[in-house]
Design a protein that fits this description.
There is one protein chain. By secondary structure, this protein is of the alpha/beta class. Helices cover about 30% and strands about 20% of the residues. It has eight helices and ten strands. β9 and β10 (about 215) form a beta hairpin.
């Protein structure tokens, strides 16, 4: 365990306070920032690209784009993802750079039927890559509704060339206890990937426009 849940909740309460989180005209995201130490990112000491299911769903689900197979189409509709494209509709996006960039910007997850993965890589890939996003293959089963619902409440924890990661853990209208549960889930999800807590320099929680509050690790 990197940090006890009680200390996480204490920091979340501070991050949501009026002092650190002035009222905005929209519901802000809550973000977790983890800074690492004594690591060489170029050498790949820490390399994260983890999809972690948040136990307490945010009030605003993650935007998911789905390209299901014909057999999966009805179950995909039941899960109500942000965007559903047939393979033919995906094909028609070939060369439509502006439309593809908009899809890449507006969605967090891209779930693609296995027989459309190469097509998605060719059409969506050039816009997803620079944004740190990527297509994820759908399972081969005909009912994919639960799979999609899981991604609607999942967050991506990834690192690039800087010794830190910043990830979505919920929305400011959730309770501090629920947000703490989500932070705890993220930390547990990456603990085995970072060579132990000794490589963590600091952990912060903040709203989109708010001030970061450091979680006490001791």
């Amino acid at each position: 365990m990197i940090v006890p849940k009680e200390k996480i909740e204490e920091a979340v309460k501070q991050a949501l306070s009026k002092e650190n989180n002035p009222k905005r005209e929209f519901t802000q995201s809550v973000e977790l920032i983890i800074a690492f130490k004594d690591v060489d990112m170029k050498r790949g000491d820490i390399k994260l690209r983890e999809a972690i299911v948040l136990p307490k769903p945010p009030s605003k689900p993650r935007n998911v784009l789905v390209v299901p197979s014909l057999e999966q189409m009805e179950s995909a509709k039941r899960a109500e993802p942000n965007v559903i494209l047939s393979k033919e509709e995906l094909q028609k996006l070939q060369g439509a750079k502006r439309a593809v960039k908009k899809l890449a910007s507006k969605n967090q997850w891209f779930l693609i039927a296995q027989d459309s993965m190469s097509l998605a890589g060719r059409i969506l890939g050039p816009s997803l890559g620079p944004r740190g996003k990527f297509p994820t293959p759908l399972p081969s089963s005909s009912d994919i509704s639960e799979y999609i619902l899981r991604y609607k409440r999942s967050t991506l924890v990834k690192t690039k060339d800087q010794p830190q990661t910043q990830t979505f853990v919920g929305t400011e209208d959730q309770s501090p206890g629920d947000l703490a549960e989500n932070v705890f889930a993220v930390l547990n999800g990456i603990e085995g990937k970072i060579k132990g807590p000794s490589y963590i320099k600091a952990i912060y929680v903040k709203t989109s426009m708010g001030k970061p509050v450091q979680i006490n690790l001791k």
